[in-house]
Amino acid sequence: MRRRLTLGPVLAGTVLVAGCSGGVVEVPPPDPDERAAQLCQGLMERLPDSLFGEEQVRVEPASRFVAAWGSPTVALRCGVERPAGLQPDSELMVINEIAWLPQPADSPNLYTAVGREAYVEMSIPPSYSPPAEGLTAISDLIVEEIPALPAGTL
């Protein structure tokens, strides 16, 4: 059986998981521009085999910009669009030099790394606590692989 991870509507930061485990999850792939695709390729090649103690699982449709771990599924998408909810006064979490926009603000399960030449999104179910554990591992890779935007730019 296949699990479907629906990142719908990403603008609102909603993440839904349905189905049962069979080692494959469905995650909608992003469609990054050429520059973001180049940057994401380096990041994706360096992702850990496990996150939160969970092993990577196969993703469908296959995409070089998506990775997932465990059940419930933690998903990463590189090269997503700039979050619509990102405003100059948005509250951000900063982990190892990476600013993450948590959504929804009151009970986040979607985190988008901002202020970089490519946006990276992670959906982390509430059962993985604290979310900073997974965000830290990915933040370190983002620092190394995706250049920062000019100061003051998100």
Labels describing this entry:
17% helix, globular, eleven-stranded mixed sheet, 2 helices, DUF3515 domain-containing protein, 154 residues, alpha+beta
Structure report:
The chain has 154 residues and is an alpha+beta fold. It has one domain (2-145). 17% of the residues lie in helices and 33% in strands. It is built from two helices and eleven strands. The chain has helices at residues 34-45, 132-145, and strands at 2-6, 16-19, 24-26, 50-51, 54-60, 66-69, 74-80, 93-95, 98-103, 110-114, 119-123. Strands 1, 2, 3, 4, 5, 6, 7, 8, 9, 10 and 11 form an eleven-stranded mixed beta sheet that branches. Strand 9 and strand 10 (110-114) form a beta hairpin. The longest helix has 14 residues, at 132-145. The termini are far apart. InterPro entries: DUF3515. It holds the Pfam family DUF3515. It comes from Marinactinospora thermotolerans DSM 45154. This is DUF3515 domain-containing protein.
